Description:
Layout: E1 3-8, E2 11-13, E3 23-28, E4 32-35, E5 38-47, E6 51-54, E7 61-70, E8 75-76, E9 85-89, E10 101-103, E11 108-115, E12 120-122, E13 128-136, E14 141-143, E15 147-151, E16 166-168, E17 172-177
Parallel strand pairs: 3-5, 4-6, 5-7, 6-8, 7-9, 7-10, 8-11, 9-11, 10-12, 11-13, 12-14, 13-15
Antiparallel strand pairs: 1-17, 2-16
Amino acid sequence: xxDQQLYLPTVSLxxxxxxxxxxxxxxxxxxxxxxxxxxCYSSLTLGGHVEFLPAPGERLVKVFVHxxxxxxxxxxxxxxxxGQLLMVVLPIAGAAGTPQAQxxxxxxxxxxxxxxxxxxxxxxxxxxxxxxxxxxxxxRLTFSNxxxxxxxxxxxxxxxxxxxxxTVKPWEKSQVHAI
Length: 179
């Protein structure tokens, strides 16, 4: 495909972020999990019809994770509202070549997946949909069978309160390969 002009955010971490204070969590089965403000996980696994949603009334939820697996008919983010979820995949030292984020298996993701320095694989044997944006180093972001990215302009208007761990700066034009 041809290159297209899209807007991608510049993101920077502020303050202290201690990955050791984060937890390993797995949510599976038919359940709804609501997120408030900021969440931190060393490892997060979502699957089996789980819904991982911003809590009612939350404008923007930021999730920081080192290892992310989403599969098995999971829904992440609020349908139709990709501007409410920012999922930041933080790099793991010495993990080059190993996917730190995998989104596969009839999964739907609504939000921004930010993984600038992490390995990310999206797709698999079944349909996998990402509505919003995926921001990653192009050499570390892999789309495979059944992967779909629907870029949504709503993610360009993320509002991050002052003093948060993450700042989304004004969107800048970047050359990205059309998928």
